[in-house]
Amino acid sequence: MKIFIMRHGEAEHFAASDADRELTPHGRSASVTVAKACAEKGFAQFDKVLVSPYIRAQQTWQEISAHFSSSQVETCDDITPYGDSEQVADYVSALVDVHNYESVLIVSHLPLVGYLTSEFVTDMAPPMFPTSGLICIEYSLETLQGEVRFNLHP
From which residue to which does the signal peptide run (predicted)? Predict the structure, then answer.
């Protein structure tokens, strides 16, 4: 199965709170560029999409959803910047196991996206994601091991 992890697009620097930071116009267009590149690789349908409740992640999904489709989109309070990567990885693994998902997309933030990547690809140090960066991981529930299939960034 495939796990796609995407960092939100570039966001404004200041807002009333971190959760309220909105995407910049560049963040919107860069996210669409990455979504198009992913779709061109043949990956545009996801069994499940998990999106952080923070505005910039929600806006990223709004922008890229024109190029991706999923019948199940969930706002997930556990995938904020300092979410527990082990807990999130366990949740995703359980979803995949119970529902037999073939593909899951997670739209979240640094540092969680890096730590989450290393939860699924255990021999990899947490990578730094650029804004709008996306990584595709081929993951085996049997071995609980993953490997990076590709990285995309604007």
Answer: none
Taking alpha carbons only, the member of 143, 99, 135 closest to residue 117 is: 135
The CATH number that applies at residue 49 is: 3.40.50.1240
For residue 64, what are the domain limits?
2-152
Torsions phi, psi of 62, nearest 5?
-60, -40
**Structure confidence by residue, pLDDT tens digits, 32-57:** 999 999 999 999 999 999 999 999 99
Q: Please count the structural domains in the chain.
A: 1
Residue pair 119/84 in contact by the 8 Å Cβ criterion = no
